[in-house]
Design a protein that fits this description.
Layout: E1 9-16, H1 23-46, H2 57-66, H3 73-79, H4 89-98, H5 104-114, E2 121-123, H6 124-133, H7 140-147, E3 153-154, E4 157-159, H8 160-184, H9 186-189, E5 198-199, E6 203-205, E7 244-252, E8 272-282, E9 288-297, E10 301-309, E11 328-334, E12 340-346, E13 349-351, E14 354-361, E15 364-371, E16 391-393, E17 399-401, H10 403-416, H11 426-436, H12 443-452, E18 455-456, E19 459-460, H13 462-475, H14 481-489, E20 501-510, E21 516-524, H15 526-540, E22 542-546, E23 549-559, E24 562-569, E25 575-580, E26 587-589, E27 595-600, E28 604-613, E29 620-628
Helix pairs in contact: 1-2, 1-4, 1-8, 5-8, 6-7
Length: about 625
C-alpha cells in the first residue's frame, strides 16, 4: 500500500482463511509440521525448555540422537567448534535440516560396497577390519556389541538387511518415544516456546537490584546464529493446522523522506537539564542488558526526555558501528509502595537517531527503562584476521599500552563516565566492575586506588584509569588474557571494534524544576520492560481479532523507524501463532527469521516481533501474516 504525502505510514489489515489449494501443498505442510514436532520433542527429551541452551558436545549428541540421528564425532565437531559456548533451539533445528537421517536404501548401498558378491551378508572378520581401521575407528567392544546381536547375526556373518530394518525401527521408536513423552507430560506441554509472555496487567513490578556479571571465559564470538529477544524456534514456512489468520500491511517511506515529529531541545535553552550516559550490552545468549534510571521530578512541569546513541570516538574519521542502533525510553511512575510501576509513556517521536517524548509529569519518582529492539544489536559472525596487540615492551623493557588499546580505553572511559564530568566516582566505577568481573569495589579498595592512581575529588581520572589497566598487564607479566576478558565483556571483538554494545545518552529537560536522574542498575529488561512494550503497543496500535477466534488479538504499531506487533491471548488455553514475513520487502526482524512460530500462554500477551528497515534510505514494506496453528 502506498503512503500518502501527509502520513508516511499507512496501515491496512484484512482477515483471510487458509484453505490449501493443492494436495501437494498439504503434503509439504504436513511434513514441515511433523519436522517441527520432532525437533521440539527431541529437544525437550534432554532439556527442560526450548529457551534453555545446549551447553556441551555431549548434550548436542544426545538431542541429535533423540531426533533419530546417529552423529559421528566429526559431525558434532562441525557444529560445536572451539568458539562455541552454547547452541539454542534455532540452531538445533538448523542442524537437523542439514543432517538428514540416512534412509534404508542409503544404508544398503553402503553395505553393498563391502558385499561385492551381493550375498546380503558380511563376514564378522571383514566387518571388524573395516570398522576398526577406517573413518572414525570403533573399538573391539563396540564392534562386538554389533556382531553379538542375535537378531541379525548368524554363523559368523551379519545379515545387513535385517540390521538396516532394526536400525530404522529403533530410530523411529526413539523419535516416537520423545513425541509421546511430550504429549503425555502436561508440564512439558505448558512450556513456553516463544518470547517471554506477560500477564495482562497495568502495573509493572519494580526492578530488583541484581548485577549481571559476565562469565570470565567469554569468547569474541560464539555462534553464527541470529537471535532476538527471547529465543523462538525455527518453524515450518506454513502450518497444516492453521485455522485462521490475519494480515497487516504497512508501507513506510525512506528515512530521508519521512516527516518525523521533530524534537528540538535547543528551543528549551532556558529549561533545567539533567543528563546521564549508559550502554546496551549484548550477553552471550543474545539477551540485552542496560542501565536503568531513577528520575526525581520535584514539582509538576512540562518535560522533554530524549535518548540517542552516543558518539564517543576520540579520533575523526572512525565510524561508530552502533550509531544505527535504535533506542527508546519507557517512562514508568513509581507508586507509593515502590512495589509496582505504572506505564506513563515512551519516546515515540523521532529526529534522526534521537527518540524523545514531550509532555507533563507530576511531582514524584519515575523509572526510565532504556530499550532497543535487537534488530541491529545482535550476535554477528565476523572474521578477525589478526588479533589486536594490547601491550608491548618499550626500549627500556617496560610494559606499555599500545596506541590502539589506549584509544579503546578512552572510549570505554567515556562510556562509563555516566555524568560526563571527565572523572569516575566509585558508583560509576562499580558499574564497570560489575560488568567486567561481577564484583564491586568497596570503600577500602577505593582508598587503595586513591593511593596508587591519579584521582581528583576522590574520583578516578582518565590517566588513573589507564594506569590501572597497565598495572593489570604488569601483574600478568604482559599476558593480555585478563585485559581481553574486560574488553569482550564490554562488547569489543579481537580487532578492538565495539560490535556488541551500544553507548547512549539520556537528556532530561524540565521547564519549572530541576530534575535529577541517577543510574540504579545494570541488568536485563526482564518483565517490567516487556510489559511496558506490550502495553504501549496495545494502547496505540491497530487491533485485529483472528477470524473465528475472538480471544486472540494481534496489535500492530508503527513509530519512527520501527514496527512492533503484540499478540494478546485472552483465552484459558495456550495458543501457537505462526508468523510469516515472506512478502515483506527491505525489512529486518529482531527474530532473525522470515517465518517462525510463538507460543502464548493463557491470559497473557507477548511481543511477536520488532521490524526495522534493512536499508533506511529506501522504502520498505511490512507484510506480516499471523495464523492460529492451535
Amino acid at each position: 500500500m502506498a503512503s500518502s504525502p501527509e502520513d508516511n505510514t499507512s496501515l491496512s489489515s484484512e482477515k483471510v482463511m487458509h484453505p490449501e489449494s493443492s494436495q501437494a501443498k498439504k503434503s509439504q505442510h504436513a511434513e514441515e509440521a511433523a519436522f517441527y514436532m520432532n525437533c521440539r520433542a527431541a529437544y525437550l527429551a534432554v532439556l527442560k525448555s526450548s529457551l534453555e541452551n545446549i551447553k556441551s558436545k555431549e548434550q548436542l549428541r544426545l538431542v541429535l540422537q533423540q531426533a533419530g540421528r546417529n552423529p559421528s564425532q566429526k559431525t558434532v565437531n562441525k557444529y560445536w567448534t572451539s568458539q562455541t559456548t552454547t547452541l539454542n533451539f534455532d540452531d538445533f533445528c538448523t542442524i537437523l535440516k542439514e543432517e538428514k537421517p540416512a534412509t534404508k536404501n542409503e544404508l544398503l548401498e553402503a553395505f553393498g560396497k563391502i558385499d561385492k558378491d551381493k550375498t546380503g551378508y558380511i563376514l564378522h572378520d571383514e566387518l571388524y577390519r573395516i570398522l576398526t581401521t577406517r573413518g572414525e575407528k570403533m573399538t573391539e567392544d563396540e564392534v562386538n556389541a554389533i556382531t553379538e546381536q542375535a537378531d541379525f547375526n548368524c554363523g559368523g556373518k551379519l545379515d545387513y538387511n535385517k540390521f538396516c530394518d532394526l536400525y530404522m525401527t529403533t530410530r523411529e521408536q526413539c523419535c516416537k518415544s520423545a513425541r509421546e513423552r511430550l504429549e503425555l507430560d502436561s508440564r512439558l506441554k505448558q512450556l513456553q516456546f516463544g518470547n517471554q509472555t506477560e500477564p495482562s496487567s497495568e502495573e509493572i513490578t519494580l526492578p530488583v537490584s541484581k548485577p549481571s556479571p559476565r562469565v570470565s571465559g567469554k569468547t569474541d564470538h560464539k555462534l553464527a546464529a541470529t537471535k532476538g529477544d527471547g529465543r523462538t524456534p525455527s518453524r515450518p514456512s506454513s502450518a497444516q493446522s492453521c485455522k485462521a489468520s490475519i494480515s497487516a500491511t504497512i508501507s513506510m517511506a525512506a528515512r530521508s523522506n519521512r516527516n518525523a515529529k521533530l524534537i528540538e531541545p535547543d528551543t528549551m535553552k532556558e529549561w533545567h537539564c539533567a543528563q546521564s550516559k549508559g550502554c546496551f550490552y549484548l550477553e552471550e545468549d543474545g539477551e540485552i542488558i542496560s542501565h536503568k534510571y531513577r528520575l526525581h521530578v520535584p514539582q509538576r512541569s512540562a518535560m522533554c526526555i530524549t535518548i540517542k546513541p552516543l558518539n564517543i570516538h576520540q579520533e575523526e574519521g572512525i565510524s561508530c558501528h552502533w550509531l544505527s542502533v535504535d533506542t527508546a525510553l519507557y517512562i514508568l511512575k513509581e507508586n507509593e509502595t515502590q512495589e509496582n510501576l505504572q506505564l506513563v509513556s515512551f519516546t515515540e517521536q523521532q529526529n534522526q537517531e534521537m527518540s524523545g517524548w514531550k509532555g507533563e509529569l507530576g511531582s514524584g519518582v519515575y523509572w526510565l527503562l532504556p530499550f532497543t529492539t535487537g534488530c541491529r544489536l545482535k550476535k554477528v559472525k565476523t572474521q578477525i584476521t589478526e588479533e589486536a596487540e594490547l601491550v608491548y615492551r618499550d626500549e627500556d623493557g617496560e610494559l606499555a599500552l599500545t596506541p590502539e588499546f589506549r584509544a579503546a580505553l578512552l572510549d570505554i572511559f567515556e562510556t562509563i563516565d555516566l555524568d560526563g564530568n571527565g572523572l569516575l566516582c566509585l558508583e560509576e566505577y562499580n558499574f564497570f566492575e560489575l560488568r567486567t568481573s561481577g564484583e564491586k569495589c568497596d570503600e577500602e579498595a577505593w582508598a587503595v586506588c586513591k593511593e596508587n592512581f591519579d584521582m581528583r575529588r576522590n574520583e578516578l581520572t582518565r590517566q588513573g584509569f589507564m594506569d590501572l589497566n597497565l598495572m593489570e598487564a604488569n601483574d600478568r607479566e604482559g599476558d593480555p588474557s585478563d585485559l581481553w576478558v574486560t574488553l569482550l565483556s564490554l562488547g569489543y571483538n579481537k580487532a578492538l571494534e565495539m560490535t556488541e554494545a551500544c553507548p547512549f545518552v539520556v537528556d532530561i529537560y524540565a521547564e519549572k524544576c530541576k530534575p535529577r536522574i541517577k543510574a540504579m542498575y545494570l541488568e536485563a529488561g526482564s518483565s517490567q520492560l516487556n510489559r511496558a512494550v506490550c502495553k504501549s503497543v496495545v494502547r496505540k496500535g491497530e487491533a485485529k481479532v483472528l477470524d473465528g477466534c475472538e480471544n486472540v488479538i494481534v496489535y500492530t504499531y508503527s513509530t519512527g523507524g520501527r514496527i512492533t506487533s503484540v499478540i494478546e491471548n485472552k483465552s484459558e488455553n495456550k495458543v501457537i501463532i505462526h508468523v510469516n514475513n515472506e512478502q515483506s520487502k527491505n525489512c529486518l526482524s529482531n527474530r532473525g527469521l522470515t517465518v517462525f512460530a510463538v507460543e502464548v500462554a493463557p491470559k497473557s500477551m507477548m511481543v511477536s516481533q520488532h521490524v526495522m528497515p534493512l536499508n533506511e534510505q529506501e522504502e520498505w514494506l511490512y507484510n506480516c501474516v499471523h495464523s492460529l496453528v492451535r
